[in-house]
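User: Just a sanity check before I run the rest of the batch. Below are the structure tokens for the first item. I only need the designed sequence back.
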């Protein structure tokens, strides 16, 4: 699978670890944001601040366009939530885009809005529960081949 990881920008270190596990399971991760966008606009270790969103719109828009491209390149989206999950919510926009594009949608963490309850959204309370399920899918596919 080609997977897009959606989470709070501050969780990029954690998502790098998730990417490493997914790679071991044979999957590719399309989310460039988890490397802090350093390959796009130089050092950008935090999400766009309110000031940047209003004063540096070109660079912020470029980040959004790269994320949209990465979502488009994926066939699956894994969206990570948490009890205390911040206020900006770009990951929720990404979730909606993935849903509208017909991606396989997987939620890890607590449900936070009605779209997380749709029957096509797979839900796992924890990352390790999902990792275990994906490993089982890989084993099942290997058995078929």
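Assistant: Here's the designed sequence for the first item:
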């Amino acid at each position: 699978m080609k997977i897009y990881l959606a989470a709070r920008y501050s969780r990029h270190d954690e998502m790098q670890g998730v990417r490493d596990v997914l790679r071991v399971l044979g999957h590719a991760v399309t989310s460039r944001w988890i490397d802090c966008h350093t390959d796009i606009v130089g050092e950008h270790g935090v999400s766009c601040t309110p000031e940047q969103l209003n004063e540096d719109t070109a660079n912020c828009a470029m980040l959004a366009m790269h994320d949209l491209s990465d979502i488009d390149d994926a066939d699956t989206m894994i969206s990570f939530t948490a009890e205390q999950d911040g206020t900006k919510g770009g990951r929720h926009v990404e979730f909606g885009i993935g849903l509208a594009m017909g991606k396989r949608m997987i939620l890890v963490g607590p449900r936070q809005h009605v779209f997380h309850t749709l029957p096509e959204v797979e839900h796992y309370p924890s990352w390790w529960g999902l990792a275990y399920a994906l490993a089982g899918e890989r084993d099942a596919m290997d058995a078929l081949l």
